[in-house]
Amino acid sequence: AQSVTQPDIHITVSEGASLELRCNYSYGATPYLFWYVQSPGQGLQLLLKYFSGDTLVQGIKGFEAEFKRSQSSFNLRKPSVHWSDAAEYFCAVGGGAGGTSYGKLTFGQGTILTVHP
Amino acid sequence: EAQVTQNPRYLITVTGKKLTVTCSQNMNHEYMSWYRQDPGLGLRQIYYSMNVEVTDKGDVPEGYKVSRKEKRNFPLILESPSPNQTSLYFCASRLAGGLETQYFGPGTRLLVL
Prior knowledge:
The structure holds two protein chains of two kinds.
Chain A: E1 3-5, E2 10-14, E3 19-21, E4 24-26, E5 32-38, E6 44-50, E7 56-58, E8 64-68, E9 73-78, E10 87-94, E11 105-107, E12 111-116
Parallel strand pairs in A: 2-12
Antiparallel strand pairs in A: 1-4, 3-9, 5-6, 5-10, 7-8, 8-9, 10-11, 10-12
Chain B: E1 4-7, E2 10-13, E3 19-25, E4 31-38, E5 42-51, E6 54-57, E7 65-66, E8 76-78, E9 87-94, E10 103-104, E11 108-112
Parallel strand pairs in B: 2-11
Antiparallel strand pairs in B: 1-3, 3-8, 4-5, 4-9, 5-6, 7-8, 9-10, 9-11
């Protein structure tokens, strides 16, 4: 069964500092990986996704993520955080073609990001 | 504007009183699903639908029903709500092609007393 772990429940950074949110996944084949952001009182917005190819993926709002198969990780990064980045971030893994989990998204527990001025 | 809408956005009810949360999308998506979000647990899939009249259980289907009579609508039904169904609910939709991007509704916050 596929699963996602986000080890950090809550992270606090200062505005302008760099950010890395961790995500570890478990999946038997090549995974499809996503990062979503949820601002307070809002729905989820897709930041970026990885299906195949280049392991460094660029997303919206200046975010990027790197797929590392050897570490089963898909960490989200941003070089300089803005106060508006304060939100909850979810990593998700999707089942690839041919598997019983095809099309199913499994989410991590979420990481709450607080940004100090 | 392409969107997924949910109604109501907020709902307070009492144990045992049947309720329905509506979900509608205007993107002609085949795939629709319902999630519940609880603190520390992330989003968990309740039910999903691959197309009209095709629905299946997700990870936490107990206490919920769904129907898909039209492509655009996917209502979530709680026949006899209980306090453990107090949660934030999200509807999502996407095209049928595997891992297309899912689009999420704004959420429905439900409190069952």
